[in-house]
Amino acid sequence: MTINAPHFSRRRFLGSMLTLAGGSTAPFAMNLAAMGNAAAQSSGDYKAMVCLFLNGGNDAFNMVLPTDTGSWNEYLRVRNTGGNDSIHLPGINDTGGVLPIVPATAQAGRSFALHPGLGPLKELFDGGRAAVVANVGTLVQPTTLAQYKARSVALPAKLFSHNDQQSTWQSGQPEGASVGWGGRLGDLAAAGNTNAMFTAISAAGNTVFLSGRQVRQFQVGQAGAVAIRGASGNLFGTAAGSTALQAILADAGGDLIEQEQKAVVQRAISSQAILSGAMLAAGAAGVPNPGNYINPNTGLAAANPLAVQLQTVARIIGGRGALGAKRQVFFVTLGGFDTHDLQKIQQADLMARLAHALAYFDATLATLQGADLRRQVTTFTASDFGRTYTSNGDGTDHGWGAHHFVVGGAVRGRDIYGAFPSAGLGHELDVGSGSLLPTISVDQYGATLAKWFGVPDSQLGEVFPNLGNFTQRDLGFMGV
Question: What is the pTM (predicted TM-score) of this model?
Fold first, then answer.
């Protein structure tokens, strides 16, 4: 059936206006009904997904490492560039060396370890609340190295480009996309929330990941939504100024656009007050401030902005009752991963921040308002792309596939999902300089999370349009 383009555009416009008005459209109400089983309809049901985006392209080769003799020797051969510029990690038996992990499912002849800075994350892995998903990346369909070289199958547009691959990871399309798969999940779930405004929330600014067709992302800072300056208290040193501004914001003539603008502003003011109140109450009820992390390069304690973002998320989750939220999707980010230079130093600091923040979030959720919410909240990493196995001297260049962490009480942890690729260069997944051809698509990775979130199999294709090209739709790393 061909959709008439002008009619489709009008329908999307009307749906967007209904969302702004706090309503929901009929198709998405039906989608929620399709999502619901007995548990999903119970008053105590709640689930949240948190996308932790590693901005810049994380070098996963320096995050999860194969340590069997052949792999380790190849790693040292390629990455030990000599002198102070070497980007290889300390040896297994050296002080401060890599941290061995033992996956529940053995991969023949292989052994593995984490970066030395990931100690708190190793504890989560060993405790069964974290898993590794190997070699994930943007794909349109399963692709072999021969097909890639011949360009005989559809490939993601503009590979190796930061902006385009960030967008493709988050939306399925290169830069310029307007809807992300987190937003599409929000579209399906919003009708189950009393206030759809709080379905998709970013603690890290604007992101295409949370943009839906109906749902609009709600951006927050550490104190919650940003209030309109001067709309309360004093303006220009007087309460009269604030009163005058409130009158202007509340005024609208007979023009329909003016009236709609007034309605949008008033809803924003109301939503800001609701969210700030809910977060304040949740904070007072037991969301602790994150402690400092230790910079492994200096040994000094410092604040961790990622942990602060996750504190904000925890406070919003703590306020879920006041917000009427049953399903929420969040976005946080950690930047600095474009490590063309000084990678050994930068990667160590970034890994320490990542592990510290995830451990803080796990501990906070374990006792949030006297309840353990770890099974109801799942955090997963994403990034522009992986990086090359080869070094440019003291860093690495843009790659493709990479390994990722999934963390939470519902995760089938202490395991590695997907076949871990061969180490080194010239193997069957090397598209150049050791850059990995992904063997797991973002669609498969996201669909596994979405299924746990409550999306039925029949609707996964609405969220992940390329999913039908892949045989395996559930990678198995999520429990109930």
Answer: 0.88
